[in-house]
């Protein structure tokens, strides 16, 4: 049996596996991706990309390609509640189009203040359109190799890595030796089973049937303004029609009510009832599925790790699943790269699970809560056919539901507000943690959170100025010299980002260290007394906190500071 070697073996060539491989590759890590599929997914599957994911794609230089794969620039990203698609619209929630995100003039920022927090809002891109973009990104890295048509059979751990057995479509087996193995192979993960890790949580939070269909001219025939999502209130058709490409491709996600079962439904009849007008359409595929709220009991066993759906499953209500998986990928990639390149000890990987699991558990719980809430709205909407009293009561209930939809359709706090406050490689500065709310993001430069969107006097952002590895943001470069020397002494790549005193004041400190994943690891108002001790802590060589510096003042950032 032949054997080849690499630094990291990634099992699973979906969005998370390709993203992880691409990020590893751009950091010089040798990576092999194996995938049981021979091509890309044919179904949209995951469809929603949140603002943090779009920021990640921007840092990789592929955001424009992702946007090109999305709905047209002027297609409305609204959420509409209707009898059926051709019927009465009873509620519409407005969100920015891609064109408005790009333009971000004063009028747009007034209408959509969430764009103060990120350049991006939620974007719809079908997984079947996203995967080719991420595949091109991954295989463009010289150190990444992609092997479609290869399934993972098992692995054994050795003194300095793992040896995995993989099988191609002919049945031939081969061995791949790697320093680390990462399972990104979905909810039925073979890697997770091989690790002996079980999932915990709720095995079912509802029942649904998804229908992927093509229907050119659908909105014109229905007389409907564009929207990302149309919630269908009509009894017997409760669910949502999601725009995939804004032209021909759509997904109808039928939410089954308590007295319904998936086996009693004909997909064409379901779609026809939801549309509500006479127009031909083509069923591409359909599949029953059960939304779940499950999280892996461990993210790491020895040299094997999990990411994406292999580590967690959640209801799609909110669109958190893929975004959470991409968060896993960027958290894990820099840590694997730092260990492989000899900049950090293997203990750095011990921080991956403790940082990500609380985020995942909260996101999964919020997604389940969203599903409960929308189910109540759908149940109320079933009375729209009951003229006149029942319809009036249903219209009132749907109108009153507006206040509860924020975290389902515009969860900026959940997308941008991840925090690693309890992490052993984040140095607390003693300031209060920002208030967390799923809908509202509170910008803060307290260590443990994402570097907020901060603009400098030249019209650029600190996001764009930070490097691929560690970044030292400072208004006093001479004072930050000890940090720079400490990074350089161990061969770690670091970028100096010089800011004005005015920008530093908004950051709440003259010196900040931003990790490779864009999270703030340390902040100080004075030059550090021991740069080496700080770097050792950030790379998991020393879990004892460095000696205390001057107390920090709270960040002056606010929603209008960008």
Automatic annotation (TrEMBL):
Question: Which Pfam families does the record associate with it?
Answer: FAD_binding_3 (PF01494)
Signal peptide start and end residues: none
Task: State the superkingdom.
Answer: Bacteria
**Keywords, in A-Z order:** FAD, Flavoprotein, Monooxygenase, Oxidoreductase
Q: Does the keyword Ligase apply?
A: no
Question: Is Heme given among the entry's keywords?
Answer: no
InterPro entries (UniProt xref): FAD-bd, FAD/NAD-bd_sf, RIFMO-like
Q: Which cofactor does it need?
A: FAD
Single GO molecular-function term? Answer: oxidoreductase activity, acting on paired donors, with incorporation or reduction of molecular oxygen, NAD(P)H as one donor, and incorporation of one atom of oxygen
Q: Which residues form a coiled coil?
A: none
Q: Where would I find the FAD-binding domain in this sequence? A: 6-363
Extract the ranges annotated as region (Disordered).
543-562
Q: Which PANTHER family match?
A: BINDING MONOOXYGENASE, PUTATIVE (JCVI)-RELATED, TRK SYSTEM POTASSIUM UPTAKE PROTEIN
Task: Output this protein's name.
Answer: FAD-dependent monooxygenase
Native organism: Roseomonas acroporae
The taxonomy runs:
Bacteria, Pseudomonadati, Pseudomonadota, Alphaproteobacteria, Acetobacterales
């Amino acid at each position: 049996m032949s054997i080849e070697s690499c630094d990291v073996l990634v099992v699973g060539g979906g969005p998370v596996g390709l993203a992880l491989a691409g990020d590893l590759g751009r950091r010089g890590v040798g990576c092999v991706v194996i995938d049981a599929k021979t091509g890309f997914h044919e179904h949209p599957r995951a469809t929603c990309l949140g603002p943090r994911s779009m920021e990640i794609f921007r840092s990789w230089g592929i955001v424009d390609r992702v946007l090109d794969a999305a709905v047209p620039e002027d297609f409305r990203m609204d959420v509409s509640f209707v009898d059926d698609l051709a019927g009465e619209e009873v509620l519409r929630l407005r969100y920015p189009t891609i064109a408005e995100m790009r333009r971000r003039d004063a009028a747009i920022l007034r209408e959509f203040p969430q764009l103060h927090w990120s350049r991006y809002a939620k974007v719809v891109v079908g997984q079947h359109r996203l995967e080719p973009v991420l595949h091109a990104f991954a295989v463009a890295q010289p150190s990444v190799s992609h092997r479609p048509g290869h399934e993972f059979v098992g692995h054994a751990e050795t003194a300095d890595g793992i040896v995995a057995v993989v099988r191609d479509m002919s049945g031939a087996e081969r061995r791949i030796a790697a320093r680390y193995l990462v399972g990104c192979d979905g909810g039925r993960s073979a890697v997770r089973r091989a690790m002996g890790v079980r999932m915990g949580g709720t095995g079912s939070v509802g029942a649904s049937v998804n229908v992927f269909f093509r229907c050119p001219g659908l909105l014109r025939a229905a007389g409907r303004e564009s929207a990302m999502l149309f919630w269908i209130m009509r009894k017997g058709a409760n669910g949502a029609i999601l725009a995939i490409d804004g032209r021909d491709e759509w997904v109808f996600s039928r939410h089954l009510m308590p007295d319904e079962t998936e086996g009693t439904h004909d997909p064409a009849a379901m779609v026809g009832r939801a549309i509500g007008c006479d127009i031909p359409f083509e069923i591409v595929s359909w599949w029953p599925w059960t939304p779940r709220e499950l999280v892996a009991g461990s993210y790491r066993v020895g040299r094997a790790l999990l990411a994406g759906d292999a580590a967690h499953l959640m209801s799609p209500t909110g669109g958190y699943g893929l975004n959470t998986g991409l968060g896993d990928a960027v958290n894990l990639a820099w840590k694997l790269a730092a260990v492989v390149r000899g900049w950090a000890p293997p203990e750095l990987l011990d921080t991956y699970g403790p940082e990500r699991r609380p985020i995942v558990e909260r996101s999964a719980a919020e997604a389940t809560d969203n599903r409960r809430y929308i189910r109540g709205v759908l149940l109320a909407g079933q009375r729209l056919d009951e003229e006149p009293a029942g319809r009036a009561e249903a219209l009132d209930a749907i109108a009153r539901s507006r206040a509860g939809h924020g975290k389902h359709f515009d969860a900026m706090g959940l997308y941008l507000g991840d925090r690693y406050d309890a992490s052993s490689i984040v140095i607390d500065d003693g300031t209060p943690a920002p208030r967390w709310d799923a809908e509202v993001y509170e910008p803060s430069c307290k260590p443990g959170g994402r570097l907020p969107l901060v603009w400098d006097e030249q019209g650029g952002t600190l996001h764009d100025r930070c490097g691929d590895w560690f970044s030292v943001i400072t208004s006093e470069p001479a004072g930050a010299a000890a940090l720079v020397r400490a990074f350089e002494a161990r061969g770690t790549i670091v970028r100096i980002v010089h800011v004005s005193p005015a920008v530093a004041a908004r950051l709440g400190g003259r010196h900040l260290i931003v990790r490779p994943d864009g999270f703030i690891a340390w902040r100080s108002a004075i030059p550090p007394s021991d740069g080496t001790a700080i770097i050792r802590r950030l790379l998991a060589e020393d879990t004892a906190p460095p000696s205390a510096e001057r107390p920090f003042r709270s960040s002056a950032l606010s929603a209008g500071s960008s």
